[in-house]
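Intended use. Records like the one below are meant for learning the mapping from a protein sequence to its folded structure. Do not use them to infer anything beyond what is encoded.
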Amino acid sequence: MASSIWCLKTKYKQMKKHLFIISLLIAQLSFAQSNKQNIRGVVIDKLSQTTLAGASVQIVNNSSNKGTVTDGKGNYVLSDVAPDRYEIKISYVGYKDIFIPNVVVTSGKETILDVAMEEDLKTINEVVITANSKSKAINSLAPISARTFSTEEVNRYAGGRSDPARLAANFAGVSAPDDSRNDIVIRGNSPVGVLWRINGMNVTNPNHFASVGTTGGAVSALNTNLLKSSDFLTSAFPAEYGNATAGVFDLGFRNGNTQKRETTIQTGVITGLEVTTEGPINSEKGSSYLVGYRYALAGVAQAVGVDIGTTATPSYQDLSFNVNSGNSKLGRFTMFGILATSSINISGGSSGSMYGGEGGGHDLSSQIGIIGLKHFKQINSKSYFSSTIGLNYSKANQTNDDFDRPTNTSFTKEENRVTKTGYNFATSYNYKVNSKLFVKVGVQDELIGLNLFYKTKERVTDSWKQIWDYNSYTSLAQAYVHAKYSFSDKLTLNAGIHSQLFFLNNSISFEPRLGLKYDINSKSSLNFGYGLHSQTQPINVYFLQTQNTDGSTSYNNKNLDFTKSHHFVLGYDLQPSKDWRLKAEVYYQYLFNVPVNTYSSSYSMLNTGAGFKTDLEDSLTNKGTGKNYGAELTIEKFFSNGYYGLLTSSVYSSKYKGSDGVERNTAFNGRYVFNILGGKEWKVGSEKRNTISTDIKCTYAGGRAYTPIDLTASSATGREQLSTNVNSDFYNNYFRLDFKVGYTYNSRSRKLSHSFSLDLQNVTNNKNVFSQSYDDRSRSINTTYQLGFFPNVIYKIQF
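Structure written out for the chain above:
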């Protein structure tokens, strides 16, 4: 009790220090004469990236009908706009009109709205609504199974924790296996099959407490205050994306404000204390900086009694940045990056803690370093080059302790140190031949440096078994060509081919991609997609070593080929009005070349990522298969008239065959997922410039497949023994209800805004099963549950 009081006092003093610093910053604010802000940006051609001079930009849901036109460089400014939500219409001769709903203006920050327009093949006077919102992907080469999301959505939805990955779990076909990590399961695929990309560069796992070879973590290292609207793709993605079989997060960092300095200060239970600053370097050239730093405050949450899933105190911090050079004769250069570190030491633990250990302990730490330089060069009015060079660094250290019952002692069971350094280069040439034909050609290469060390033992008296001890490098090269051809305004073809070469064992893959979109009318369309997708195995799998009788070491997995997958998707889109959308998709996915054991076994690499433990299967062969199929429905009411709603439903099956030829459930076969989200916003105050908002989210999903524990065999051997009926049972169904309430205050006389939100996660305190394990001391099966009721408080000030 005394230690808890001391901890609380210490954290309170730290918070007082932070609040004092914040107060000093606020005191420096200039007293402007108005709280009104600007909406500004640039209008470009979506395919050629050339700026469009003379485009009309107008507010259409306001009596003022404020409007302007773009200048010679495509820039526009809607000045002196009062805090509110607006709908913007952009028009340009020969291009499709764009209506952008839900443009949020606050008094504390300018709203930057860049717009990409598509050329209209028709010459008759027909208005085509192409809302630049969630209804279409930013990448015009992705006609199906793709969706854009904005930072406003990430921060708005209840239960989202300001995490893009957790936001994606609300989309049809996607599920989050547990509350402890943000791993994403797409259509029954392992989360290992997901590709992350930032500013056009393939990146390592951008999450705290991440391990090499995975794609998720406990806390996102992505600062949402630096992100711009981005794409999430779930199947049959275009030819430019490779080395992924499940899905793609295609993220982008926004540029900082090129005209004025702005600051955001934010505190939250999950994201911690955060300061983001941005502003111009040279306003005439359009250069700017954007920097954000975050520091964990989980210890404060624990001190006041909030259960964060563990009694240990996690420590994490990250620094993100995006520096834009502006336009010059050499083109536009952008330097971006994420530097992150995290650590936690878990001693002992209880059966109720997701991160606990039964008499053991876990010492975890990870570091991330992502640094990239992007170059954009406009060649002429029809073509441009886009190139990126960068460094991806990830390091994970883990030491696990265990308890030995016969000797009644604790001992170190595992030591695991993994470092991966990737040197990336990518370039693409983009050519808009005419209004009908667009071609994109690109190459990329990653030189991968590896330092792997892992040893383990089962008993305190056992000798160490060396699993990895490797220090070398290899390379993965990729190339692609993609063409988009519009036969008419109704029918569009996307076709391409992606190729990969893995230099470690000279594995080669050629992957055709195809997408068709047919607009039935201005409100509905049919879509079809096909793609062959290939992926290397988690990099550490190739270097699993075997000690031979003569003392030599063999790497029996080194020649594993790519895992491959055929994707087939058919979709129907209906947008009966600019505020509503219905989307339905059916899909079939056949996976082959999946690593399985050389002997008769139920093991398959398709189950990798289902737990925290690393796969230690040696002498694998590419003879396994799998299949995923299902149907999805999305009904969405975009934010307008003060409210929004989203219903997503997925019914699916995920099966695999190991080397024994028996078809089983994969560990990710949840069978169904249903999400219902909604929110309402009210304008309050005498001038109606402030808002109160409420958001609610309900998730109901099938429990995950698992292999039961054989209690009799476990008690006899003193260690956990699983049943031979692999993945034959399902955990109880998952249910979670989240509720969020927020308040935004826009200053009457200053360019300053405050927002406060209380996000009540799992408000019913439902006990969703996380895992089951055998406790050797009590000789019983313990059930660990996911997070119970969890309040997340966020305060943000912008000026």
